[in-house]
């Protein structure tokens, strides 16, 4: 007995991802929340959006947000260190 699968296709460039409906004000920890926006999405969820990379995280826990900031800053420092090393190597090659 054959079964027929049904599927739904979306057009090229379309997305089912929720979009930001509103940016909310918060009085929570300003050291953390100065790097995030609390937003309401089109699916009625509330999320924290990291301003640097626009990643959405759960808004309930400041420790999760702090961890994301620390990971991002560590990655930025690593990229900066690598760029400095490349500059030194390039400078030595030119001399």
Query: What is the C-alpha radius of gyration, as a whole number of Å?
Result: 21 Å
Order of helices and strands: EHEEEH
Q: How many separate helices?
A: 2
- The low-confidence runs, each spanning 5 or more residues with pLDDT under 50, are 3-10
> How many beta strands in the DSSP annotation?
4
Which strand-content bin applies to the residues? 15-25%
Biggest sheet overview: 4 strands, antiparallel
SS content category: alpha+beta
Helicity, in percent? 25-40%
Domain count: the total is 1
Strand order of the largest sheet: 1-2-3-4
Task: Give the helix/strand layout.
Blueprint: E1 20-24, H1 30-33, E2 36-41, E3 46-50, E4 56-58, H2 62-94
Antiparallel strand pairs: 1-2, 2-3, 3-4
Q: Would you give an account of this structure?
A:
This protein has 95 residues and is α+β, with helices and mostly antiparallel strands. Strands 1-2-3-4 form a four-stranded antiparallel β-sheet, covered by helices on one side. The model is unreliable at 3-10 (pLDDT under 50). The relative contact order is 0.11. The protein is built from two helices and four strands.
Provide a short characterization of the protein structure:
With 95 residues, the chain is of the alpha+beta class. It is built from 2 helices and 4 strands, in the order βαβββα.
Supply database-style keywords.
95 residues, alpha+beta, 4-stranded antiparallel beta sheet, 4 strands, 39% helix, disordered N terminus, DNA-binding, homeobox, Zinc finger, BED-type, Phospholipase-like, Homeodomain-like protein, DNA binding
């Amino acid at each position: 007995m054959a079964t027929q699968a049904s599927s739904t296709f979306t057009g090229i460039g379309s997305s089912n991802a929720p979009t930001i409906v509103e940016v909310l004000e918060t009085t929570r920890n300003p050291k953390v929340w100065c790097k995030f926006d609390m937003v309401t999405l089109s699916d009625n969820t509330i999320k924290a959006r990291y301003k640097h990379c626009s990643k959405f995280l759960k808004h309930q826990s400041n420790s999760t947000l702090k961890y994301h900031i620390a990971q991002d800053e560590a990655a930025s420092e690593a990229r900066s260190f690598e760029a400095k090393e490349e500059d030194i190597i390039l400078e030595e090659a030119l001399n």
